[in-house]
Amino acid sequence: MKKVFVSERIPRFVEEYLRNHCDVERWEEKGEIPRDLLLEKLKDKDGLLMFGESIDEELLQVAPKLQAVSTVSVGYDSFDIEVMRKHGIIGLHTPYVLDDTVADLVVGLMLSVARRIAELDAYVKAGKWNKAVGKDLFGIDMHHKTVGIIGMGRIGEVIAKRVKYGFDMNVLYYNRSRNKEAEEKYGAAYCSLEELLTQSDYVVLMTPLTDETYHLIGTEQFRLMKDSAVFINASRGQTVDEAALIAALQNGEIYGAGIDTFTQEPVEKDNPLLQLKNVVTVPHIGSATLQTRQEMAMVAAKNLVEALSGGNPPYIVKE
Ligand code: DGY
């Protein structure tokens, strides 16, 4: 039987499935496995099921038998693809299964920022609701406005569907290539990044983190946005220059932001974003529903078993 190490928490039924096919060792403690221990564990392993660990030269040097690494995520920015290719390691991820769940969160963040839901929840719970609210507490509309989606992949498309048909929004998008389906089904209009930033009432960043998208949105891009714009990041923290985001929010260059992903995760307790009323923060929960995370873990496990048995895993990272 192939030997597999599992560093991510997975449901019992997924573990059982893995144990039926492989010899499984699991990280049982709370929190992330320390790096040196992970390297130690991988010395005799053929496969790794993980989330977030850097798969790089250092790790692959000490794991001579490793054949496949399966992440319980659609994003695989922790994979050093070139190094993995050099070592002949198969990289696997979990697309599709989380698209609806992530899109739901994005729409939730848009609404929450626009209608100040988190801020006004705190206001009510603090006992400050003594009279009917005045315009200092009014929000802004989402319906019939323009949303610009940066990164029109599978999740971008589902967001487009929700906002087009649920909120009658006008959809713009910027992507490395045209997405005809999004254009035909959701009337999404392809445009340059500059056009998207200047015309959108809501700017949603959904692009994967790559060398090209690192700090894609920074000072210059925030300046191009409307001062009434809502900015949402549910991709990866590093796609945004966080200092520029903080400055844009503090200087009133944009209306507010909904942030699922941060430069450092877990976010530092003194990060200025946490002090701003016009920012809604959540702890990288794009795909974090019970059902979706269970399904993702199963997809990751099946991917790994298939790869280790020389079969055709459905979701190989292709680059
Ligand atoms: C992913 O799958 O990459 C998500 O960011 C995890 O929530």
Average pLDDT, to the nearest integer?
A: 97
| CATH architecture descriptor name of the largest domain | 3-Layer(aba) Sandwich
Q: What's the gyration radius in Å?
A: 21 Å
The level-1 CATH class of the largest domain: Alpha Beta
Whole-number total of structural domains: 2
| Multimerization state | single chain
Shape: globular
Helix content: 25-40%
Query: What portion of the residues fall into strands of 2 or more residues?
Result: 5-15%
Distance between the termini: 30 Å
Query: In CATH, what is the homologous superfamily of the largest domain?
Result: NAD(P)-binding Rossmann-like Domain
Count up the helices: 12
Number of strands: 12
Largest sheet: 7 strands, parallel
Q: Structural class given helices, strands, pairing?
A: alpha/beta
At the fold tier of CATH, the topology name of the largest domain is Rossmann fold
H/E series: EHEHEHEHEHHEHEHEHEHEHEEH
Bound molecules: (2R)-2,3-dihydroxypropanoic acid
Main sheet: strand order: 8-7-6-9-10-11-12
Low-confidence segments, given as residue ranges, are: none
